[in-house]
Amino acid sequence: MANGSGRPLSPHLQVYKLPRTALLSITHRITGVGLAVGTLLLTWWLVAAATSPAAYERAQHFIGSFFGLLLMFGWSLALYYHLCNGIRHLVWDAGKAFELSEADRGNQIVIGAAAVLTVLTWVIGLAVW
Amino acid sequence: MASNSKTLRSPLQIARGLGSAKHGTEHWWHQRVTAIALVPLTIWFVFGVIRHLGADHAAFVAWLQSPFSALMMVLTAVVTFHHAQAGLQVVIEDYVHNEMAKILSILAVKALCFVLGAACVIAVLKISFGA
């Protein structure tokens, strides 16, 4: 893998197994983009409610459909992941928890917290619905 | 026009003494400030959504007619879209390398975020002031 300069190369992504920290890092970005797309539904929901009861019913009907619920589940998971991992980024911004062992523990906390919060939200959500 | 060989700064930069445009960390900082603000706002939003799952129009409107809910929803929308456009800008800057495509897509994303954010705010205000 010589590039002629003798300088080290970036990892070749197709044959390089991403460490879990890198996997969580790119997932943060992917969920962020996904959540940005999700703001379209938020806008539709609010604008529909401001427009008319019929428009609001259409939005609610879509959200309550199978596809709507699937999207909502994905967004709730993405939201909690991005929230938890975002808080972890703020910890890093404060200059803390950079050791590999701490990063590994952070990975587990972020994944665990996002999963638990998502399940909890849906259990409560489906119970009160 | 011999400049100091020990520095990479041009003579004009040295004369002006400005360094960066003094906004070097502003984008980064805004993303952090909005991130921190979004922690409580997101928690409020999730609770609000759960409480109004399947709510009819009257109940939903009544919720946003409370001044506190309207305030929180407006803040959630504004800060969310501010955070979204800042984050999407960085993603585009990282992956789109054609200068024209990069600038156009950043402008498009920012415009869309401003429009959607304004639409959310107007919707909440319309409901809040009695749709």
Automatic annotation (TrEMBL), chain A:
Cofactor (UniProt): heme
Transmembrane regions: 30-50, 62-83, 109-128
Cofactor note: The heme is bound between the two transmembrane subunits.
Gene Ontology biological process terms from the UniProt entry: tricarboxylic acid cycle
Annotated GO MF terms: electron transfer activity; metal ion binding
Membrane association type: Multi-pass membrane protein
Organism domain of life: Bacteria
Sites where the protein binds heme: H82
Subcellular location: Membrane
Cellular-component GO terms for this entry: membrane
Pfam families (UniProt xref): Sdh_cyt (PF01127)
Keywords, alphabetical: Heme, Iron, Membrane, Metal-binding, Transmembrane, Transmembrane helix
InterPro entries: SQR/QFR_C/D, Succ_DH_cyt_bsu_CS, Succ_DH_cytb556, SuccDH_FuR_B_TM-su
Subunit structure: Part of an enzyme complex containing four subunits: a flavoprotein, an iron-sulfur protein, plus two membrane-anchoring proteins, SdhC and SdhD. The complex can form homotrimers.
Family assignment from sequence similarity: Belongs to the cytochrome b560 family.
Stated role: Membrane-anchoring subunit of succinate dehydrogenase (SDH).
Name under which the protein is recorded: Succinate dehydrogenase cytochrome b556 subunit
Organism per entry: Azospirillum brasilense
TrEMBL record, chain B:
InterPro entries documented for this protein: SQR/QFR_C/D (IPR034804), Succ_DH_anchor (IPR014312), SuccDH_FuR_B_TM-su (IPR000701)
A GO term, aspect molecular function: heme binding
GO BP of this protein: tricarboxylic acid cycle
Segments traversing the membrane: 29-50, 62-83, 103-125
Name of the protein described by the UniProt record: Succinate dehydrogenase hydrophobic membrane anchor subunit
GO cellular component: membrane
Pathway participation: Carbohydrate metabolism; tricarboxylic acid cycle
Membrane topology designation: Multi-pass membrane protein
Alphabetical list of Gene3D superfamilies matching this protein: Fumarate reductase/succinate dehydrogenase, transmembrane subunit
Naturally occurring in which organism (per UniProt): Azospirillum brasilense
NCBIfam families attached to this UniProt entry: succ_dehyd_anc (TIGR02968)
Subunit structure: Part of an enzyme complex containing four subunits: a flavoprotein, an iron-sulfur protein, plus two membrane-anchoring proteins, SdhC and SdhD.
Keywords in alphabetical order: Electron transport, Heme, Iron, Membrane, Metal-binding, Transmembrane, Transmembrane helix, Transport, Tricarboxylic acid cycle
One Pfam family this sequence matches: Sdh_cyt
Major subcellular location class: membrane
